[in-house]
Amino acid sequence: MKKLINDPADVVAEALRGMDAAHPELRVDHANRIVYRADAPVQGKVGLISGGGSGHEPMHGGFVGPGMLDAACAGEVFTSPVPDQMVEATKNVDGGAGVLHIVKNYTGDVMNFEMAAELAGAETGVEVLSVVTDDDVAVQDSLYTAGRRGVGVTVLLEKIVGAAADEGRDLAGVAAVARKVNGQGRSMGMALTSCTVPAAGQPTFELPDDQMEIGIGIHGEPGRRRVPLAPAREVAAMLVEPVLSDLDFTGPDGVICFVNGMGGTPLLELYLMYNEVAALLDKAGVRIARSLVGPYITSLEMAGCSVTLVKADDELIRLWDAPVRTPGLRWGA
Amino acid sequence: MKKLINDPADVVAEALRGMDAAHPELRVDHANRIVYRADAPVQGKVGLISGGGSGHEPMHGGFVGPGMLDAACAGEVFTSPVPDQMVEATKNVDGGAGVLHIVKNYTGDVMNFEMAAELAGAETGVEVLSVVTDDDVAVQDSLYTAGRRGVGVTVLLEKIVGAAADEGRDLAGVAAVARKVNGQGRSMGMALTSCTVPAAGQPTFELPDDQMEIGIGIHGEPGRRRVPLAPAREVAAMLVEPVLSDLDFTGPDGVICFVNGMGGTPLLELYLMYNEVAALLDKAGVRIARSLVGPYITSLEMAGCSVTLVKADDELIRLWDAPVRTPGLRWGA
Amino acid sequence: MGGMSAALDQLTDWVRRFAVAVRENRDELTRLDAAIGDADHGINLDRGMTAVVAALDAESQPTAAALFKKVGMTLVSTVGGASGPLYGTFFLRVATASGEVTELDGPAFAKALRAGLEGVVARGKAEAGDKTMFDALAPAVDALDAALADGDPLAESLRTATAAAEAGRDATIPLVARKGRASYLGERSVGHQDPGATSVTMLVAAAADALA
Amino acid sequence: MGGMSAALDQLTDWVRRFAVAVRENRDELTRLDAAIGDADHGINLDRGMTAVVAALDAESQPTAAALFKKVGMTLVSTVGGASGPLYGTFFLRVATASGEVTELDGPAFAKALRAGLEGVVARGKAEAGDKTMFDALAPAVDALDAALADGDPLAESLRTATAAAEAGRDATIPLVARKGRASYLGERSVGHQDPGATSVTMLVAAAADALA
Ligand SMILES: Nc1ncnc2c1ncn2[C@@H]1O[C@H](COP(=O)(O)OP(=O)(O)O)[C@@H](O)[C@H]1O
Ligand SMILES: Nc1ncnc2c1ncn2[C@@H]1O[C@H](COP(=O)(O)OP(=O)(O)O)[C@@H](O)[C@H]1O
Ligand SMILES: [Mg+2]
Ligand SMILES: [Mg+2]
Ligand SMILES: [Mg+2]
Ligand SMILES: [Mg+2]
Q1: CA distance B217 to D16
Q2: Taking CA atoms, what residue in A is nearest to B329?
């Protein structure tokens, strides 16, 4: 295992120390592993928290700041945080308007956030709503399974919902925007290599030099199928087609098109992939209104990428364009 | 070779297409492989251009925009661009106040920019000054060698000098700021893995699972020495010590501390490294005034990191804090 | 006593033996999770059970309810992932069902385990054949009830329950996962043993050893 | 003629033979550059010489000066890196020294090569023993002058020059690089043959073949 770490057991705690030191505009509760914007709670604003396993940086801690999250709870690598963290964060970001929990659809995350919402309601009286992202079309959605995974849409949703909260909407209104984004978003990812969980010490899966995994998630889990390596053009089609066939993205509204790096793929390749994705969308009659290219929801050092589309009407575009100031996403004021 | 590419010969051209499509605020001349800010030339402002081999993204194309570069010339992967590109860019960013060439100290880059400056002067009459960055303490500086390489300081310099040009300084003044930043900056890098040049098709060097390279550059070239893998704490010391012993960074002024990822190392590890670096600087009596953590000057998918310190007085801090709006660095307005 | 009921120190010993088993099989559990999950099940449970042992070392618990509540709360607070809420809820329900007593007889212990199982179902909604810990735990609880109903002593009944858990665990191998992370793999989950079913079999086996 | 002087078509053939040699040895040159550089020397030169051949195919050049200027400009515009300006300047200086002629005799060809060598030095400041293309090119030019002064015909003199280039190239192996990217390696550059010295030896050998 080749990593810039000390003891694998200390990776998350030490990375949070570094984040704290590098970002004076954040406040980190190291005992509870919570990243706050330094000025939380913001009075009168709906508080937004998210959280999940570590190893997906900049998500979620890097999305804390004005215009996005108020706090993020960091779990162990690829392991959902625990309810205590979420309860504590909920208390500390409530500015009187209630708190929205943004949860990626993984059994662990959902159950821990569920317990937290129960406890937070009981212990603190803070009004809590939860929204679950489940945008990964690699996974069949069904009542009888765990359902689709929450992946790339989570990034776009945290940005858009952050702007909605900034506009002063109430908790129900903010949650409605979140559900709208999730409902209008789909993603699909692939991997060229596995990643290595520090505490496990070896790659989660073995992938021969001439093979890739299509339909992977963000936890180093294998994908839906293993296929021979293919040119970027074909890879783009393998990602775009299932997204487009799951939801109709044509129409006047246009999409936010997000080409995400899994952690080990250089920006050069992500831009090259974006070029292929844009060409496919053009051919399919899908208009790109906004775009985002880079490693924003990662899987440690995994090489690979994912494509996320969110159908965006004028309201969502306005919220997307609104100022945001976090370590990971920053524009406007 | 596992990469998201089509034909290795087309990597740079296709990535530039993607960049162009993803960033309406940029204008890309595909024939000449030049990335411009869309509103170039800015009348009355000193024009800033840089350029170099591709594979270091976001540098330099991702640093084009208000507050930073006016144009960037993209070479083939790890190969300096050619004089024709620099001449063309020089012509198109000159707003009447002359043009500064920011050149990393590599034989190829220096010779190509030299030829370009000669040609630009002769062909166009545009006043051109050049500044060469050479901050890599892994390389012995000597009159009889190619001298130190230009690495991490280039990123900080492009930001700071961009702000100086925005303030309306003249060409000589802007060049003086650039020389000051370079003179006050030092870097040192390391690699856990090699990278693979797409056209070469295999890793530039072989590195056993239990070894790392200390003192690497940004072109996949091997480093000064190969040593056994070590914890992040020791790696940080191997990078910080030679930097501190090359230049005195103590004193009231403080430093901009930049922990850079080489492309394949996740942000989680970079923050962890930042924590170690900050601790060492604290022990050495060096005050961190500002910080930057992330993959900004990369070496394709190489895993590893570098540490850059620039001594920054109030003037440099003010210029660092000034607004910047580029794909790669963005804050303020 | 002789395997007819379980005193508080035996119940505590059950928890400690489970911690030892998890520690010893940490890498194996993680390896199973790497195949169809995210390579952390052993790491997660070991982190939690290490914290549990530390909590029990720090403070001895006066009743079965207190003991299992401490175990459940500690697991909820330290494990995370899917197994944190599932194992945590299991022990919290076991605590409530056990009550403020210092000894559980066979039927009381079986009732507590069934309450724990119901907690797992309430939390995770797993059904038989979903390829989860349910598929080992449910047959074990059923077998325990049946054996006790047949008049077998608790110790022997728990050995019967362990065999049922093992059979349930092994039977997860050919299943297509429908719950948890392994469900993302669809057909590719076939041929792999479920990590949670594996760890929960260790839990039942630890009871058989501790309450012998 | 018979190897006493070089007509325009032979000079063109020299360039084309060099292009073929570079293409055939592209991977070998890149491999040498991977060891002490950045793994692109063969790729760079091949890209440039492919463009040169395309330019020569598109338009035939009337004089030696025009021919070599086209080669030099094309290399400057398409190669980049260190070898672009170095090979480019070499051919641009060869062009100027050749003049607007359609044939070069031995001394004129030798004079042109020396001008090219001086261009390389002017551009790159390399000295003998720096472990660069200079270490193969300079001995070749010296040997050519000496052989011609001895009265050897051009063709034979170029074979002598090729041997000198080869010896110079091989002699780069034990050197510590002091110029270019390989200099960053310090002592670690010892034991590796310089890629530029290798390609420039092919350039001299191509002249010996074309002007035979
Ligand atoms: N809905 C569920 N109901 C019961 N057990 C489940 C459920 N989802 C997952 N599990 C169990 O959890 C185990 C995985 O635990 P663990 O690896 O610790 O969590 P995570 O999947 O969050 O990484 C699976 O092997 C399975 O037995
Ligand atoms: N200053 C110099 N003078 C002469 N030759 C040089 C000089 N620097 C480098 N070279 C030659 O250039 C070769 C490398 O060329 P190439 O790999 O194409 O460029 P780069 O180093 O920019 O990648 C070296 O092997 C060496 O022979
Ligand atoms: Mg997990
Ligand atoms: Mg090069
Ligand atoms: Mg798991
Ligand atoms: Mg090279």
Answers
A1: 35
A2: A330
